[in-house]
Amino acid sequence: MKIFLFLSFIFQSVFAFSQNPEKSSPVVINPHTYGYVNGIRLDSIDAEYGQVITRMQTIAFDYGQPGGRKKLTVTDDKGTALVFARDGLPFLLNFFFYNGWELDHTYHDATEKYEIFILKKRR
Predict the structure, then answer these.
(1) What residues make up the domain containing 89?
(2) For residue 14, is it within any domain?
């Protein structure tokens, strides 16, 4: 019985330390935060229009640049994906307005089941 208890404690301790810590992403709780796409600050992007694709907690901003989803993700200045704490269109639009963009129009992609927002650069 003592051997069984000893082995159960050893077995339990092996799994207690085998977990990897998750990377924590900065959470945007204030729309007055600067965002970056592929290392370029949103307000300094040289484009007339861009589109925002919302998926889960992160967002992607496409202004015609080449690259996959990872290069489209809105990040902080260190390249870590921003996680938006508040769901909703007003918070998202305030974030982009602070970063130099305004809503031009929106449409719904029925095949992917998400909203796409077309933004215009403010001059």
Answers:
(1) 26-121
(2) no
User: What is the rounded average pLDDT for all residues in the chain?
Assistant: 79
| Angle of CA points 48, 110, 120, to nearest 5° | 10
When divided into structural domains, the chain yields a total of 1
What would the pLDDT profile of 13-55 be if each residue is shown by its tens digit?
A: 655 554 444 556 677 777 888 999 988 999 999 999 999 887 6
3-state secondary structure of 71: helix
DSSP state for residue 74 in the 8-state scheme: E
* DSSP letter assigned to residue 57: T
Structural domain contains residue 95: yes
CA distance 4 to 31: 56
Q: Supply the pTM of this predicted model.
A: 0.72
Per-residue tokens: 47: 């484009």
| C-alpha to C-alpha distance for 72 and 44, rounded to whole angstroms | 15
